[in-house]
């Protein structure tokens, strides 16, 4: 993707087994692509004592020296989080997990997603006298739990269920209460959350299964939509359904762009889905070109599928500088972002000169960096430049955790469909259809996916006060 929406969050937890801290640290590191702004780990020890370490920065920076005062061998469970704020702004105070005291118990929470009645709930809680320490959606859950704990006679697990039933939107959660641990997922299952286990009796819960691969955990299953799974005494897994799942609405954009190709999300391999998207795209929008050029890294697997299906050779004619940090800056600072994007990808003239080039990328958001890239590829000597995109045009915002720019800034809304190709100064442009995109997922049906940023059909609408797109 050229103009990346803000990444959101990644979750990883370990319950029981050996090397809890090392496993959670390694697992979290594999999820760095889901958030680069801040990282945190909260651990619990036998007897219920909990400690927390979090800060702004990458996982490797934040945990360069794991807190020396922690008796690492006594850690029983850990929850962790990487963040790039989609709600609540980009300040260190919003780093997660959050850790508070509720009715004498230590409660920790880490959250991926966006609660789309957050504004209304916050207003209600403020009116009742609540004091917020952060501006994240996540803190709301703790306040709702604290209030519900009275009516639940101090049973904080019941209070958590009550709190979750009040939320609208997307939430995959890790929760620690003293030395017990739980994972929960909203009733639509917008964001992925999977359970793995280790041979020594330990469990891991993570946003993506790539975290299992590096730590030696085996995939068990997903946390189901509307399910709360608690690891209690003896590290036994207990499942509760806190709300019914009326329909699934998994985020198709996880397969298009966000998740790592080495992961399984929503029971499908991201690698296979993404490559299949390229194959279907080649059938739907064939091109007469000499070389297929992936836009690294996100267009890589779709380009492989496209080249395989079309029989056109693939060539790595864009060289990526891996030492340039995030290419996403403030959405308003377009020129700065473009400078970074230009530094990140350089065209290789020897591969492009005199060629008819077909770029394959996963999506176009604003269009400005695509335009710049096409220009530089022509300058490097390409005779023709075509572009194929492995999802439909983005026309709508997302209320469920992906921070696209406002609708007016999306290229597909700014420029009439017939003028898109000319606007990007391309020789031809083709997008994958929605039907083609959904034909690539196999484990679940097309009706189990959210495609709202493409078709405007939101599985759940935010409260009026929360409609900010
Ligand atoms: S609107 Fe788009 S990005 Fe948001 S959850 Fe739905 S498919 Fe994913």
Describe the model.
This protein is an alpha+beta fold and 469 residues long. The chain has 2 domains: 9-246, Glutamine Phosphoribosylpyrophosphate, subunit 1, domain 1 (4-Layer Sandwich), CATH 3.60.20.10; 271-444, Rossmann fold (3-Layer(aba) Sandwich). 28% of the residues lie in helices and 24% in strands. It is built from 16 helices and 23 strands. It has helices spanning 20-30, 59-62, 118-127, 138-151, 156-165, 210-215, 252-258, 270-284, 300-310, 334-344, 349-352, 368-379, 411-414, 420-423, 434-438, 452-455; strands at 9-15, 38-45, 50-56, 75-83, 98-102, 105-112, 172-177, 180-185, 194-197, 203-206, 218-222, 227-231, 237-241, 250-251, 264-265, 268-269, 291-294, 318-320, 345-347, 356-361, 384-389, 428-431, 449-450. The strands form 6 sheets. A 7-stranded antiparallel β-sheet has the order 3-2-4-1-10-9-11. A 6-stranded antiparallel β-sheet has the order 5-6-7-8-12-13, with helices on one face. Strand 5 (98-102) and strand 6 (105-112) form a beta hairpin. Helix 7 packs across helix 8 (270-284), helix 8 packs across helix 9 and helix 10 crosses helix 12 (368-379). It starts with 8 loop residues before the first strand and ends in a 14-residue tail after the last helix. Mean pLDDT is 91; it is low at 1-7 and 328-333. Bound molecules: iron/sulfur cluster. Residues 190, 251-253, 398, 400, 402, 450-453 line the site of iron/sulfur cluster.
Summarize the structure.
The protein is of the alpha+beta class and 469 residues long. Helices cover 28% and strands 24% of the residues.
């Amino acid at each position: 993707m050229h103009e990346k929406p803000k990444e959101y969050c990644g979750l990883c937890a370990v319950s029981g087994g050996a090397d809890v801290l090392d496993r959670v640290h390694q697992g979290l590191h594999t999820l760095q692509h889901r958030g680069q702004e801040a990282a945190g780990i909260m651990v619990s020890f036998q007897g219920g004592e909990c400690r927390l370490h979090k800060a702004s920065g990458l996982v490797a920076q934040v945990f360069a020296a794991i807190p020396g005062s922690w008796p690492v061998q006594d850690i029983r469970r850990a929850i962790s989080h990487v963040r790039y704020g989609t709600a609540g702004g980009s300040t260190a105070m919003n780093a997660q997990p959050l850790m508070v005291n509720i009715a004498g118990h230590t409660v920790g929470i880490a959250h991926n997603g966006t609660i789309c009645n957050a504004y209304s709930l916050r207003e209600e809680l403020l009116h009742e006298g609540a004091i917020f320490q952060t501006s994240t959606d996540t803190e709301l859950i703790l306040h709702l739990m604290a209030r519900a704990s009275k009516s639940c006679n101090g049973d904080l697990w019941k209070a958590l269920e009550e709190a979750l039933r009040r939320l609208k939107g997307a939430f995959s959660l890790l929760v620690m209460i003293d030395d017990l641990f739980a994972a929960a997922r909203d009733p639509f299952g917008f964001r992925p959350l999977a359970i793995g286990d280790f041979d020594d009796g330990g469990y891991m819960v993570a946003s993506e299964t790539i975290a299992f691969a590096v730590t030696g955990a085996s995939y068990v299953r997903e946390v189901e939509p509307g399910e709360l799974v608690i690891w209690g005494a003896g590290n036994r897994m207990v499942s509760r359904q806190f709300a019914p799942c009326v329909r699934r609405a998994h985020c198709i954009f996880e397969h298009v762009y966000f998740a790592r190709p080495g992961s399984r999300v929503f029971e499908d391999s991201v690698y296979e889905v993404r490559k299949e998207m390229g194959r279907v795209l080649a059938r739907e929008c064939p091109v007469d070109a000499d070389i297929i050029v992936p836009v690294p890294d996100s267009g890589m697997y779709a380009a492989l599928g496209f080249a395989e299906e079309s029989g056109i050779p693939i060539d790595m004619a864009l060289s990526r500088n891996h030492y340039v940090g995030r290419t996403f800056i403030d959405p308003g600072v377009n020129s700065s972002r473009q400078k970074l994007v230009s530094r990140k990808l350089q065209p290789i003239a020897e591969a492009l000169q005199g060629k008819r080039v077909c770029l394959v990328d996963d999506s176009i958001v604003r269009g400005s960096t695509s335009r710049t890239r096409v220009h530089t590829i022509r300058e490097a000597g390409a005779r023709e430049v075509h572009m194929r995109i492995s999802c439909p045009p983005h026309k709508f915002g997302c209320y469920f955790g992906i921070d696209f720019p406002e609708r007016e800034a999306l290229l597909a809304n700014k420029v009439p469909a017939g003028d898109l190709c000319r606007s990007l100064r391309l020789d031809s442009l083709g997008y994958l259809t929605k039907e083609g995109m959904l034909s690539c997922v196999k484990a679940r049906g097309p009706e189990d996916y959210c495609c709202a940023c493409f078709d405007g059909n939101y599985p759940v609408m935010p409260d009026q006060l929360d409609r900010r797109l």
